[in-house]
Amino acid sequence: MEKLRKIAVLAMVFTFLTVSTACAQDAMNRTLRDSLYGGLIGALLGTAVMLLTDNPDDHLSYIPTGAAVGVLFGAAYGVATSGMLSTAAAEIDTREGSVSLAMPTISTEQLYDEKTNEVEEIERIELVRLTF
What we know:
alpha+beta, 2 domains
């Protein structure tokens, strides 16, 4: 269990370091805020679950566990909604002669259809982005 915690912490640190260097400051602020809110909500839920047990004193570990899970979910939500990962699977820049690979993400767009007079929500994944 301890080894799993260390791996999770290292993965989080690596993710935050790689994402923070490639993204805008406001997106990182949003992710940090969502992480903190998630931690607070998780701690509150952990406290509520602890109070529902027969012996709450024996289950004080529910509070930090809930906070940790909340931080993870808050960070995941912040990254997913901030648009930080709007990259293509492969980006090719012919001006500089560089190729970069990344994990493709889904972006959502809303388009107005004049024929049906409705707003449609379209999801797309960029596989290759070519700059020339």
